[in-house]
# Entry
Amino acid sequence: MTASPSPSSLQPQTAGSPLPGKSRWILLRIILALGGATFVLFPIASGNNYAFSVAGLLMFVAAILLPPVKPRITLEQKARELGALAVVDGGRYRFPNSSSSAHVRLFVASDRILSLDAKFRVLLEIPTAEITSFLAVQAQKGWFLEVLWSANAAEFHYRGDSAEPLARAAEKAIRSVEPAPKPEVPQHRAATA
# Structure
């Protein structure tokens, strides 16, 4: 069983704007081009004022030369690209040997767990086959999820009212891809005569 996020949690968080960023950028370019064209034609209708014409020409050229919007990748697209079975909030990941930290999301795939920041940069990669233990634990200031693998360790800190459910959801997502324990091989005694 995999812990997959709800569709609403996969959508990018916006500040309630009626138009997405790409549409606003295109609308700005169109308004700039139309305004520039209007100002270029303004001296024909009004007489000798060519200052509007120069300003309009500059606006029109600026609208043409503005770079196109870079396509924004969504959380769902990135999860598909990485082959993630689940995407969960990773809380704040503290960098090793540093006091700095970053808010991350954990992309849990069958072969690895990736910790990505808000710009989808990989901050940490944990091979699931090497995980030795993981546990969500309540601490004095919230909750944290500790993951141990090989000779490494990572801690993800959660704070606030939703700290426990977030830490437990991350633990559950990792548990869903945890490798099966290796069966113990019985040891045979040497035959005594």
